[in-house]
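Recap from last week: sequence in, structure out.
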Amino acid sequence: AELKKASKRLTCHKRYKIQKKIREHHRKVRKEAKKRGRKKPKKDPGVPSAAPFKEELLREAEQRKQRLEELKQKQKLNRQKEHEKKRKLEAKKNAAKIKEKAEGKESSGKSKAKTNKLLDKNSKKSFCRELKKVIEASDVVLEVLDARDPMGCRCPQLEQAVTCSGGDKKLLLVLNKIDLVPKENLEKWLNYLKKEFPTIAFKSATLMKDRTMEQFTKRRARVDLSRTTECFGSKCLLKLLQDHVRTQNKAIQVGVVGFPNVGKSSIINSLKGVRACNVGLTRGVTKSMQIVHIDKQTKILDSPSIIADPSNNTLALALRTILNTEETASAGVLEGVDAILNHCSKQQVMMHYSIPDFRNTEEFLTLLAQKRGMLKKGGVPDIENIAKVLLCDWTGAKISYHSQPPESHRRPPYLTEDITAKMQECFNLKNLEEENKNAVQALKCPSPASSITFQSAGMTNGTIQENKVIEEVSEWENLETSMEGEEDEEEDFTESDDDQDDVEEKHKVQVTRKAKLGKRQTSPTNSEKQIAESEHSNSLSLSLDKTADEDDAYDFNTDYV
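Predicted structure tokens:
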């Protein structure tokens, strides 16, 4: 006998109950939609039959649809092509890795050389190469100094390279950012520096317009109009260069060199009168030699920044390093801020930032972060970012601080009286002094009370030769080798105990290599900072030996109150 299907009949009570629930649900949905403010999409009414040119309008609409479809198809094809390219690149990389493992050390060395070539543009060695090109090509070298710390911006290696190069190569000192220093202090520095090299007081023009910039824009950025866009010292510098051209009877090339954020590119822009070179607060904007024609007889060569030697003290490394503060480690930034605060008077810093008394740098940064509203989730002050901002302010043109010149004048060992006389030849020094005085008098300078007194750490050592540059790529190579070692260990984990012992020996050899590298970096002549860095690198290398279980192990015997 066939089974009867279950009846779908319901009692009226149950049916009415279901209908009621449905009505309530629909009401609820409508209410929520009303709150959100979402309305139903209106249907396209179409073109009314009475409208004139109805057929033409419909044709246009169809054409639009076709165009949109074509665009979508093109985009789809482009995406597919990009995906294919990526797949091919990945396949090539995988093939290269397999080849490297098969070939051994030779193939790995070649691949590393290729990667080094690719990374060569932004490397320190390329910066040195470009700087050397500028020094060799130029007849006159302009060493740009920050008027707030002129001694800290001087590089003895550069000055020695120019003075001992031979020929008629001249070196001039350009004292930039003179509007951030009190007049008395500026005059003292001009009197001190002119004893060694001809010195020009300079204030580069800000808010320079680019040739390609549109005159009228819809949105106008907020511009600080309190600071003048007027340039001081440009006429004097151009006059000196023209005098040198007359004496030489030939066209000259002028190289502009100096540490980062000193104002090299801005000086070139103010001499040209147009924004010819890129300018920015970030360090190391100029990465290669740039030629700017001022007139028929003079060419100016813009150069990348001088690389500060790692043997310098923490203050010099904080203010003069080529690395951007965004890329540097948080510990290095905090050390730099600590060094700056130690070399300033505490009361003046408190007055400038309008902050109450603080015990250490961390407390100072927390107070500053709270004041400026730089907070993380939960109202925690963002110390790392405020430290980076503070470093940018001190290297940029925001804060007014000044350092005193040495009481007794001592010549550097590479600079003799004959060399100074040679450097001062062909220049009208009396006229230069008068021009400097006029520039200082015409300029609006801050008062000594509003400017922070700063203790200079002396000349900053720089590396000019490529051979002496310690590249950071080597550290990445070490990390790569360690990662490769770890991968090999993972592959060989399933093998016999003898193979595991060999892997452990290899790993120990890697650790010893890293330890040796750390020892090489820390020489007895190096500063305390370098020693700390080497210890940090050693600790990192040793931490690779520890397994995840050891690091993340939990001690159940500990009691928490």
